[in-house]
Specification:
With 702 residues, this protein is α/β, with parallel strands linked by helices. It is built from 24 helices and 28 strands. The protein has 3 domains: 267 residues, Rossmann fold, CATH 3.40.50.300; 88 residues, no CATH class; 279 residues, Nucleotidyltransferase, domain 5 (2-Layer Sandwich). The termini are far apart.
């Protein structure tokens, strides 16, 4: 009886012979032609409408990347079909054996789950795939929707090793199949991107050889510089390192630019990310000649002229607007060029041009610029009323360099850690936050008044060269540790002369611990240094309008809180306590100090340069003014968010001054006597919409 039961079980597990390919010539024609594959086998998705020239160019780039490796970023507008294009490209890559392990990432787990369910539907239900790829689809259909059958499924008495889980598909192992044992896995970008190795039936470890990233950011993430930075780090440090060393990893990202300086916008900047090949695809290549008088006036007026309280009246208005457009279509379309002429709803629209203008009219210029043009406009609330380079250069206090004014109660410093160089600023402070920059510079000393950080790499003045000269290994960690030792001896190992007599020591010196892989080095140095009592690792975090400010964070035993900064208690995993502060608040705070006139409480000024031309201060002035501030409005408060623009100018002295001001607050300086301007919004003249849009277009280069 038991033997008969096992025999029956084997029979149920055996799927029998694999059917023959129905159209081998059709199958062969698509092996090296992704475009043909997409349009042939997916008539209801990527093959539904004829592709545009933009589609053909993007598909050709994806094909080249899958076949040869590299990093391809396609900034595509909504409705372009980028998600289905990613899904079906993964099927092409695995079915023909071009790639053995595509890893597909969605913005979150829910979107990643939708992607793998969509792929599963094609593998189970697509009859065209079943006809030409029976070696893949026949064993999948034999499961009859029951994943529990995977472990026992056999073909010709051999296990197929098929897997069909919530986030992973392992295609059946079938002799002679190009897709034999290929893996397709999906994951949300917020999950753990490590540990993607898969042990194949022959014992080899298979790593992902194709990464597809589909729309990696949500609206909330794109508008948060801190979250953008974290996601960029994750992509660069984890996802791009998923492949092995024996084969070039192919990476394709299909996405939309949502905000200036978001993840996609930064990766599209070739100067900053030269390893990525990227292109922005706009819906509108050129606006119509009658953009203003017809589309945005006559047509828009009729489209929006309806009574919202009457059911169906909006549809009436839309139909009347369409009738107007149909009557004047030739004139209305003149000069307008769209990327894809089939991109419209034939039930309510008659052309892709009308569809584009409907989106512009209904959703507004902001949404259209980002979602459909991949060129987001600068926000309305970009604040241009900030201190200028020339104002800072000329704001000197008459005191000599290295001399602390006698009115100062505190002396603080900050060190900003970069891979090739250390930046520092030393500042004297009165009790009311009147500040005097006593000294600033770099280690190693570059012996020039003005230079760019990018010029330091591999120069004799770099950290690594200095470490090598000292007889140490020239690696990054050893070089940074050695440099910190030399610089802290220079800053904390000497007494600073006071104007009028006497000396001062530096009370507190935060060291930025947020740069790349240097975090552990900074903590270790602060713990071991002879100046450990006056050193503290620091981390800046951009607290936004939607976040709780640090002052509202829950206080735990051992925590120390101050003016938008905190020093967490001993529960931290490292043996040294650290400083955490709100960069948005403190950058706004410094802006106010620079804006305060000389002689008023809370004024910040520079030492008197030796040269009459004041060229000495141009570098620090440019770095202090490197970032833009944007007013962000939340439910309960308004916050200026500071962002480094696309060109990514040096801002290291700005970070140093922020840390120095926070250190002054920790040591006892207060804001009691300071005037306005530490982050509150100023009311100004309100611009008309047309004037505002004109200014914003000029700023964005349109």
């Amino acid at each position: 009886m038991a033997e008969r039961s096992r025999e029956d079980s084997r029979k149920r597990s055996e799927i029998g012979a694999i059917p023959k390919c129905k159209r081998p010539r059709r199958k062969a024609a698509c092996k090296w032609n992704l475009m043909k594959f997409l349009t042939t086998y997916f008539p209801n998705s990527t093959g539904k409408n004829p592709f545009s020239k933009d589609h053909k160019r993007i598909v050709a780039r994806i094909q080249n990347c899958i076949l040869h490796g590299g990093r391809q970023l396609n900034a595509l507008y909504r409705g372009f079909g980028k998600t289905t294009m990613s899904e079906n490209s993964a099927i092409w890559g695995t079915f023909y054996g071009h790639r053995k392990y595509p890893a597909i990432f969605g913005a979150d787990k829910e979107l990643a789950d939708e992607i793998i369910e969509s792929i599963k539907t094609e593998l189970e239900e697509n009859d065209l795939l079943f006809e030409d790829f029976p070696e893949v689809c026949f064993p999948i259909r034999a499961l009859e929707g029951r994943p529990q059958r995977c472990g026992s499924q056999t073909c010709g008495g051999e296990l197929t090793h098929i897997e069909w889980t919530a986030d992973r598909i392992v295609l059946p192992t079938i002799e002679g199949s190009d897709a034999s044992g290929a893996i397709i896995r999906t994951k949300g970008l917020h999950g753990n991107a490590r540990g993607f190795k898969f042990k194949r039936t022959d014992g080899t470890q298979q790593r992902p050889d194709l990464v597809l990233i589909d729309d990696p950011q949500t609206d909330e993430l794109a508008g948060s510089p801190d979250q953008v930075r974290k996601l960029l780090n994750k992509i660069k440090r984890s996802i791009l390192k998923l492949g092995g060393h024996n084969e070039t990893l192919a990476v394709v990202m299909n996405a939309t630019v949502i905000e200036e300086e978001d993840v996609v916008d930064q990766l599209l900047d070739h100067k900053r990310n030269p390893s990525w090949q990227g292109e922005r695809i706009p819906m509108i290549r050129q606006w119509a000649k009658r953009h203003d008088d017809f589309w945005l006036e006559k047509y828009a007026t009729i489209r929006n002229d309806y009574d919202e309280e009457i059911p169906g009246d909006q549809l009436r208005a839309w139909k009347e607007a369409t009738a107007l457009y149909k009557k004047h279509q030739k004139a209305a379309d003149t000069g307008c060029r769209v990327g894809w002429k089939y991109c419209f709803d034939p039930k309510t629209e008659i052309s892709a041009i009308q569809h584009a203008y409907n989106a512009l009219i209904d959703d507004g210029e902001d949404v259209f610029a980002s979602e459909f043009q991949n060129q987001p406009l600068p926000p309305d609330d970009y604040d241009e009323d900030v201190v200028t380079v020339e104002q800072i250069i000329t704001k000197t206090n008459g005191h000599a360099q290295l001399l602390v004014p006698k009115s100062c109660s505190f002396l603080t410093a900050t060190i900003d850690v970069q891979k090739w160089l250390l930046y520092y600023v030393v500042t004297g402070w009165e009790n009311d936050f009147t500040g005097f920059v006593v000294d600033y510079g770099t280690w190693p000393d570059q012996k020039q008044a003005y230079f760019k950080y990018r010029d330091v790499r591999n120069s004799p003045g770099a950290l690594q060269a200095a470490a090598k000269t000292a007889g140490l290994k020239a690696g990054m960690e050893a070089a940074i540790y050695h440099g910190l030792g030399q610089l802290t001896d220079q800053l904390l190992g000497t007494e600073w002369n006071r104007d009028g007599g006497g000396v001062m020591d530096i009370d507190l010196c935060p060291i930025d611990a947020g740069y790349g892989d240097s975090t552990d080095i900074v903590y270790e140095f602060c713990r071991q240094s002879e100046y450990s009592a006056r050193l503290i690792p620091s981390h800046g975090r951009g607290i936004e309008a939607s976040d709780d400010p640090i002052t509202r964070w829950k206080k735990r035993p051992g925590d120390r809180f101050g003016l938008n900064w905190t020093i967490p208690g001993s529960r931290v995993r490292r043996a040294v306590r650290h400083l955490l502060f709100d960069t948005n608040y403190w950058k706004s705070f410094l802006q106010s100090r620079w804006s305060t006139p000389m002689g008023d409480p809370g004024c910040l000024s520079l030492f008197e340069p030796k040269t009459a031309t004041r060229k000495r201060h141009r570098m620090i002035a440019e770095q202090v003014t490197a970032e833009n501030r944007i007013l962000q409005v939340g439910k309960k408060r308004k916050v200026y968010v500071w962002r480094n623009p696309k060109r990514q100018p040096d801002n290291h002295f700005l970070d140093c001054l922020v840390g120095s001001a926070v250190a002054a607050s920790i040591t006892g300086a207060t804001v009691a006597a300071i005037g306005k301007g530490d982050g509150s919004n100023k009311k100004g003249k309100k611009l008309k919409l047309s004037e505002l849009q004109k200014q914003r277009r000029e700023r964005s280069g349109r």
